[in-house]
């Protein structure tokens, strides 16, 4: 019976799970890759058809443009011929008003135009139809064509497009102006769309096998600024945003939730993923003609579900073979494991007993295979371990004693160093006090007192290190409180000025404790000297907030000028504080006025 927690069962189960995992991984890798390749192939087919249709549209458009140029020259020729005919007749007659006669009027049946007579200053004398030239009269020049387009705001409308031809009537020193409405012979896109419709509809039908989506031509205003969907149910046929070609089978665009900006960004690029009628869709946007006022685009939209049905299921053929191979591998592995794990189980039992403390047990497995060699090596290792354990115990005992003695010796030596430094600094303080007693000048005494207090901070620091159990860290609460007491005694202000402290129980090494002590000494001394007229109160606080420390020293004295920059002042005391703060605490001194002077330093201890 195979135990579920035995090594062979676990390894067999592990290999079984690994096989399942690899089989799953195989399907997860192969199937998506096959789908991806087939999807890519289908997209390529669709894009090729779209490309061919797009090129066909462009070719027809170029042909239309060429035909338009030829027709434009033909129309100019008709207008020019009629103008010459009329002016020649008027030059033969004595009166320009004979133009009212039909024989003097524009006679071409291909186009209907208006005839006007202007004086030498280009003011209207006579017209068949009312028309104003006031805005552009200076542009009307002899034997010259002038075209003027007045575009309205709608994309589907051309507005007013007129062609003017001016001819001078030399005998009367007047001007004949023939003005023709271009839309009478060429409406926007009409001829173009009539020529396109038959051929382009055939191209549209090429994509019918791939989708039930939409394919259409559309003019789009590229200057739309909002981010709303292009199509709205409230849109009218005449609008400022878009216009569908008459080749399309519908009046409004099928763009779903796409915005004009998204459509413009997708021109001649990858298809856009979006929703159309609540269904996932792909839309290709191809350019036909682009100018600054309108884009002429070819759009093809395919529903994703129609597109995906073309992705085949060829991977199904490999599933049965893969599963059969997997189960054959399991059977073969089971036979091999049963033979292989007999020796492994013996090794496992020996290792288990050794772990419990039976150091005299051995596996005694015979043979020449890898497991037998491993078992012999294991038995030899047990022999060696048993011999070395006793030797190692003795060596550890000797080394531990040596290390303990060395550590005690170093701690004693370090304490002695701190003690001697403390004593030397204490002697220096006493010498300063002795010198002070001999000096009468108050300014000199104050200077010596200031030096005395800075040395006291150093002496106190080494005293605390000497007294501390940890020779690297100083308890700041006792350290700062001792500084405050000594300063009060040195300046004889016990009855006038009180110092209150709120110091958190934190420990710092000498690199941070010493500059803090010097800064506090300098700020309190400054308050003693300048903050109070009579009585006063000083507050010292040190708090820890997250990874930062906040030192605050404030008094209820008269304070400093609110606009003073304490980091850039000529005062020696503030220069000392600023230099210590910047150099050793990597911070800066902040000053606030709160019913007295308030100094703050926020710093971080770098490990």
From TrEMBL:
GO biological process, one term: signal transduction
Listed SMART domains: HAMP (SM00304), HATPase_c (SM00387)
Organism domain of life: Bacteria
GO MF annotations in UniProt: ATP binding; protein histidine kinase activity
Catalytic activity: ATP + protein L-histidine = ADP + protein N-phospho-L-histidine
Domain HAMP: start-end pairs: 338-390
Keywords (A to Z) from UniProt: ATP-binding, Kinase, Membrane, Nucleotide-binding, Phosphoprotein, Transferase, Transmembrane, Transmembrane helix
Listed EC numbers: 2.7.13.3
Entry GO terms, CC: membrane
InterPro entries linked to this entry: HAMP_dom, HATPase_C_sf, HATPase_dom, Sig_transdc_His_kin_sub2_dim/P
TM segment ranges: 12-31, 313-337
Places the protein is found: Membrane
Pfam families on file: HATPase_c, HisKA_2
Full protein name: histidine kinase
Source species: Malaciobacter marinus
């Amino acid at each position: 019976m195979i135990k579920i927690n035995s090594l062979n069962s676990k390894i067999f189960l592990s290999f079984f799970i690994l096989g399942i995992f690899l089989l799953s991984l195989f399907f997860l890798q192969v199937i998506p890759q096959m789908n991806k390749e087939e999807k890519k192939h289908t997209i390529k087919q669709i894009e090729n058809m779209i490309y061919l249709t797009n090129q066909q549209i462009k070719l027809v458009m170029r042909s239309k443009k060429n035909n338009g140029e030829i027709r434009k020259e033909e129309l100019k020729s008709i207008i020019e011929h009629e103008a010459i005919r009329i002016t020649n007749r008027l030059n033969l007659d004595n009166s320009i008003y004979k133009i009212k006669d039909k024989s003097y009027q524009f006679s071409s049946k291909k186009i209907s135009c208006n005839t006007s007579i202007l004086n030498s200053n280009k003011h209207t004398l006579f017209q068949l139809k009312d028309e104003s030239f006031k805005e552009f009269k200076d542009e009307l020049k002899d034997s010259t064509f002038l075209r003027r387009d007045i575009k309205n705001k709608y994309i589907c409308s051309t507005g007013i497009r007129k062609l003017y031809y001016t001819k001078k009537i030399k005998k009367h020193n007047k001007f004949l102006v023939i003005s023709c409405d271009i839309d009478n012979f060429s409406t926007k896109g009409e001829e173009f769309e009539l020529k396109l419709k038959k051929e382009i509809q055939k191209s549209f039908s090429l994509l019918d096998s791939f989708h039930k989506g939409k394919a259409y031509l559309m003019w789009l205003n590229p200057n739309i600024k909002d981010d709303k969907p292009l199509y709205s149910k409230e849109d009218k046929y005449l609008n400022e945003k878009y216009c569908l070609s008459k080749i399309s089978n519908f009046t409004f665009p099928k763009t779903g939730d796409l915005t004009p900006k998204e459509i413009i960004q997708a021109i001649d690029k990858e298809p856009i993923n979006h929703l159309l009628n609540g269904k996932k869709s792909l839309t290709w946007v191809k350019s036909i003609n682009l100018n600054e006022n309108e884009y002429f685009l070819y759009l093809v939209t395919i529903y994703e579900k129609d597109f995906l049905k073309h992705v085949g299921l060829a991977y199904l053929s490999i599933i049965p073979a893969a599963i059969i191979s997997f189960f054959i591998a399991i059977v073969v592995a089971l036979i091999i494991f049963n033979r292989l794990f007999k020796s492994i189980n013996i090794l496992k039992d020996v290792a288990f007993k050794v772990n419990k403390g039976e150091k005299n047990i051995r596996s005694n497995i015979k043979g020449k295979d890898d497991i037998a060699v491993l078992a012999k090596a294991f038995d030899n290792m047990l022999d060696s371990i048993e011999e070395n354990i006793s030797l190692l115990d003795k060596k550890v005992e000797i080394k531990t004693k040596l290390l303990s003695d060395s550590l005690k010796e170093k701690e004693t030596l370090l304490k002695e160093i701190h003690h001697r430094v403390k004593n030397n600094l204490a002697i220096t303080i006493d010498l300063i006090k002795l010198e002070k007693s001999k000096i009468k000048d108050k300014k000199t005494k104050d200077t010596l007192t200031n030096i005395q207090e800075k040395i006291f901070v150093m002496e106190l620091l080494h005293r605390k290190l000497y007294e501390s159990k940890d020779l690297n860290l100083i308890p700041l609460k006792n350290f700062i409180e001792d500084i405050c007491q000594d300063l009060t005694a040195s300046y004889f202000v016990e009855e006038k000025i009180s110092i209150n402290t709120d110091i958190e129980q934190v420990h710092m090494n000498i690199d941070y404790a010493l500059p803090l002590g010097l800064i506090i000494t300098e700020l309190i001394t400054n308050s003693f000297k300048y903050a109070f007229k009579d009585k006063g109160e000083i507050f010292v606080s040190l708090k820890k907030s997250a990874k930062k420390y906040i030192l605050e020293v404030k008094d209820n004295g008269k304070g400093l000028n609110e606009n003073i920059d304490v980091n850039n002042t000529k005062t020696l005391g503030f220069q000392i504080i600023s230099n210590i703060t910047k150099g050793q605490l990597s911070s800066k001194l902040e000053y606030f006025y709160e019913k007295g002077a308030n100094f703050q330093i926020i710093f971080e201890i770098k490990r």
